[in-house]
Amino acid sequence: MDLFEKIKHNRGPLGQHAKDAHGYFTFPKLEGEVAAHMKFRGKEVLGWSINNYIGLANHPEVREADAKAAAEWGLGYPMGSRMMSGNTNYHEKLEKELSDFMQKEDTILLNFGYQGMLSAIDALVDRNDVIVYDAESHACIVDGVRLHQGKRFVFPHNDIENLTKQLERAEKITEKTGGAVLVITEGVFGMSGDMGKLDEICALKEKFEFRLFVDDAHGFGTMGKTGVGTGEHLNCQDGIDVYFGTFAKSMALIGAFISGNENVIEYLRYNMRSQIFAKSLPIPLVIGALKRLELLRSKPELKDKLWEIANALQSGLKEAGFNLGNTQSPVTPVFLNGGVGEATNLTLDLRENFGIFCSIVTYPVVPKGVIMLRLIPTAMHSLEDVKYTIESFSKIKDKLANGEYVSDTIAMH
């Protein structure tokens, strides 16, 4: 069979809906200044789908720093990879400041979070090693694990008893291969919003020999007293051997980083293929990250405002009878019962008649018969936004229960 013919007739679980969904349910365009209220298809909407946790995207100091850096340096410099010709004092300064903030010995900058996580896993382990990872790990972790040529075991989400069994299995293998064990999990799980049981996993080091790699994309800047992340929140930052954070959430930027032991970070600098063979982060992005990190550290009121909004939103939705699962972070999933057709009609109603834009998640990401509306509160939202959203959600929940969204097909728009 011709490759392109095969693709033509098998579009994938999401791609099969592309003709009807593209531009509205998938690949939508939110326009205007990054804020709580933006434009969608010409109409103003209240958005709960922007990764701008503490409101830095349009902070005046950030905008000034970004503009000044772009004017001074342009977007091309430095050219080449860090290893060959793309290293600068600014890159090294950012790594040093991140290390100090994260309470780790050293840090390596990454061009992109997804790419970096996948490549770091590939670099850290060889065929003699065993990976043990949480079943609800992000796709970048799953894809990194797929590259691993040795054994890999998965444990049910946050199931410490089962993790113990997998570590026992892993230990038996490494005794024969002479390899090591790497446990991978997340600080805050981006869909459900609950935390990984990092403190309990760290406690297992008393019984087993392994290293812990934590993806804390949603925890960096939002969790812990000073925003260091989920490890700080659970008082086990020292037990995290390899810490991954991204600029894409709290810092509203492109890029990511890994912090850890000096020897490990130096090893990654010389062995992460995604960084060795990729162009260095442009200086304006690095200078912009330095400014954002400065504000994250010096203005705790930004994180406090995020949590004020998150707590008001979550407590209000719970009081109104909504199921939010087990979220322990600003990530706010709202679980409803219904099929894909109902989900699309409900989403159309929310956007067109209530002016609310949030992410919609259906099968295969969640089980069949479940609709998940995923809300991301930010420091840019107001308590009035929260009140209006809860009132609107209560109305759409009643309409869903009354069968007003029933449909066997994706709604047209």
Describe this structure in words.
The structure is a single chain. This protein is an alpha/beta fold. The protein folds into two domains: 3-53 and 300-401, Aspartate Aminotransferase, domain 1 (Alpha-Beta Complex); 60-298, Type I PLP-dependent aspartate aminotransferase-like (Major domain) (Aspartate Aminotransferase, domain 2), CATH 3.40.640. 41% of the residues lie in helices and 15% in strands. The protein has 15 helices and 14 strands. The chain has a seven-stranded mixed sheet, with helices on both faces. It has a four-stranded mixed sheet with strand order 1-2-3-12. Strands 11-14-13 form a three-stranded antiparallel sheet, with helices on one face. A hairpin with a 5-residue loop joins strand 1 (30-31) and strand 2 (37-40). It is globular and about 60 Å long.
Task: Set down the secondary structure blueprint.
Blueprint: H1 3-9, H2 18-21, E1 30-31, E2 37-40, E3 43-47, H3 60-73, H4 89-102, E4 106-110, H5 113-124, E5 130-134, H6 139-147, E6 151-155, H7 160-177, E7 181-186, H8 198-203, E8 211-215, H9 230-233, E9 242-246, E10 256-260, H10 262-271, H11 273-276, H12 283-298, H13 300-319, E11 332-337, H14 340-353, E12 356-357, E13 359-361, E14 370-375, H15 383-401
Parallel strand pairs: 3-12, 5-6, 5-7, 7-8, 8-9
Antiparallel strand pairs: 1-2, 2-3, 4-10, 9-10, 11-14, 13-14
